[in-house]
Recover the amino acids of this structure.
């Protein structure tokens, strides 16, 4: 029976870039175990030679002519930014002290 | 307002979009009068219903005035020019807030319109505002909205369905004649069922997803939310068709949908073969819902259809398949909310790094259900688990599509109850994800296979007097069959009821 431990949830939250606090971890871990248990019924349903479906439509690549079409102005593109500096997105530091 | 004035306004509110279009054409009313009546209605009832997250009275009236001017000048844009509409808050609207029911997008104003919103504007429909929804469309009750739940107009203590509960409740409470919804696992159809309204999920790729904030790209579809089947067909034709900005949009014309609805309204289904899906009834379905469904089937027989039972053996695995594929796609889609380019930015400390800001922002900005699904998707996509979970779900998805193909070799449409139960009480399933997920039991197979499905009101369940829905599924690209059969069923039921079933005065 699949079970997902509190430590695993903490690890997954780290991978997903979400700061979960202790209370959230306690709350989520058992719920995720129950969900995983209920989807475990799928194992063995499809034989190995069944092809996977990633998409409802049998699409391959879709191309368009390589021509310039109207887009957003820099002001529009930056209109929702938390911080703007010199017509750029201003972000927190991305390198640590040691780097 | 004087009594005759109030009566006149009430008539405008009760009218279908098609009737409003006729009244406008006959010069009996104006778009400004219709739009104002709906804005007044929103002001009067949306406190308790809470279908709207944002109302744009000024913008809607300006659009209505422009429509009236076009009418006077003889330059109408479409059959629905001047008929107002509400839009689910997951669709980008230029200059109008778009939150997706999430704190992480509070106050965000998109710099562009979703293609469907642009098409509404090009067709001359005034936009009343944005409707409430479960956060990022994750839920079946709108209780996962960060801005508080929507209440069912039939009983304010109950859920209006989800995720598009706001659009369904707005239409059911006569706050709007039309609305747009989106359906990933049933988010148009299940709210339609529990609010006694019509909801259509088109063929995957039939309506552009450009500007729709994606939950699960391979499953999401935009569609109409209305009170009549004909209105849904009119709206579908106004927004549907190929869009070069959506690479998954189907590059061929829509079938004639309005014509199919009008044909259905004649009530003749002679020669039509209908399949009742064995796996979509029985255990877990409320007796009153099943009784109304069976009556609907009987009415189709009376209209001349031939009804057989059809087994789709892999549908029993649809829920589990969905609850793997959807979180995988959602966890990947929602990675874009990183506090860098738009939306919320939370600083856990003054000199925090970008990654620390990201973590703190996503913790503060996402609600419980969104976190559940992101973590679940991250898990199922992890190396070592990928084949067992995501890979296996993709294979079962193939088997479910094959079930549909085999069934549609025998019948023209498949039918089932839309949702297993009527509206449950607010709070009842909020912290029991599995119980909540079971609402989508009958609607999910269509999303996995990309086929169209419509929910039409089937009447009130005996146990609780609440609305139930009748689902009609058709092969991909044959959306017209949903409209034809839906309209025929609607016509037969209206005759039986002596008029539409509407919630008691709110």
């Amino acid at each position: 029976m699949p079970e997902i431990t509190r430590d695993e949830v903490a690890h997954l939250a780290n991978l997903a870039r979400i700061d979960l606090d202790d209370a959230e971890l306690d709350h989520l871990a058992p719920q995720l175990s129950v969900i995983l248990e209920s989807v475990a019924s799928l194992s063995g349903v499809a034989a190995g030679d069944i092809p996977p479906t990633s998409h409802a439509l049998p699409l391959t690549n879709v191309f368009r002519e390589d021509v310039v079409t109207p887009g957003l102005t820099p002001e529009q593109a930056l209109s929702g930014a938390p911080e703007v500096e010199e017509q750029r997105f201003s972000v927190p530091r991305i390198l640590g002290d040691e780097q | 307002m004087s009594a005759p004035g109030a009566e006149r306004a009430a008539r405008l509110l009760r009218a279908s979009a098609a009737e409003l279009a006729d009244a406008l054409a006959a010069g009996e009313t104006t778009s400004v009068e219709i739009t104002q009546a709906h804005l007044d209605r929103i002001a009067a009832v949306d406190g308790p219903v809470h279908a709207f997250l944002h109302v744009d009275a000024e913008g809607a009236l300006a659009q209505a005035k422009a429509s009236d001017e076009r009418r006077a000048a003889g330059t109408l844009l479409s059959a629905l020019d001047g008929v107002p509409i509400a839009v689910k808050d997951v669709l980008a609207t230029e200059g109008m807030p778009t939150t997706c029911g999430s704190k992480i997008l509070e106050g965000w104003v998109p710099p562009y319109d979703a293609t469907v919103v642009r098409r509404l504007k090009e067709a001359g429909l005034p936009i009343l505002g944005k409707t409430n929804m479960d956060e990022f469309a994750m839920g079946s009750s709108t209780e996962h909205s960060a801005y508080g739940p929507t209440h069912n107009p039939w009983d304010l203590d109950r859920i209006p369905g989800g995720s598009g509960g706001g659009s369904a409740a707005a239409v059911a409470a006569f706050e709007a004649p039309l609305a747009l919804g989106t359906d990933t696992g049933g988010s148009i159809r299940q709210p339609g069922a529990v609010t006694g309204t019509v909801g259509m999920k088109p063929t995957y790729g039939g309506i552009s997803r450009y500007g729709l904030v994606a939950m699960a790209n391979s499953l999401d579809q935009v569609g109409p939310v209305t009170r009549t089947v004909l209105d849904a067909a009119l709206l579908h034709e106004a927004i549907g068709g190929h869009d070069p900005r959506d690479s998954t949009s189907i590059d061929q014309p829509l079938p004639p949908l309005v014509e199919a609805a009008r044909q259905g309204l004649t009530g003749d289904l002679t020669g039509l073969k209908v399949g009742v899906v064995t796996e979509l009834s029985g255990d877990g379905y409320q007796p009153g819902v099943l009784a109304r469904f069976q009556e609907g089937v009987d009415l189709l027989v009376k209209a001349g259809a031939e009804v057989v039972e059809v087994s789709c053996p892999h549908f029993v695995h649809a829920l589990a398949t969905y609850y793997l594929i959807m979180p995988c796609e959602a966890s990947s889609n929602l990675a874009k909310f990183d506090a860098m380019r738009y939306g919320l930015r939370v600083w856990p400390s003054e000199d925090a790094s970008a990654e620390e800001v990201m973590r703190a922002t996503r913790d503060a900005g996402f609600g419980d259900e969104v976190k559940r699904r992101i973590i679940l998707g991250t898990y199922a996509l992890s190396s070592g688990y990928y084949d067992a979970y995501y890979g296996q779900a993709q294979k079962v998805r193939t088997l479910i599509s094959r079930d549909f193909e085999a069934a549609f070799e025998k019948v023209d449409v498949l039918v089932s109850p839309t949702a297993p139960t009527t509206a449950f009480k607010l709070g009842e399933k909020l912290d029991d994800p599995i119980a909540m997920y079971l609402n989508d039991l009958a609607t999910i197979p269509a999303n996995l296979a990309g086929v169209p499905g419509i929910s039409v009101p089937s009447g009130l369940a005996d146990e609780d007097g609440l609305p139930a829905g009748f689902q009609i599924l058709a092969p991909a690209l044959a959306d017209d069959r949903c409209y034809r059969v839906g309209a025929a069923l609607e016509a037969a039921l209206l005759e039986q009821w002596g008029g539409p079933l509407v919630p008691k005065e709110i």
User: Anything to note?
Assistant: Residues 229 and 447 of chain B are 20 Å apart (CA to CA). Chain B touches chain A through 72 residues (CB under 8 Å).
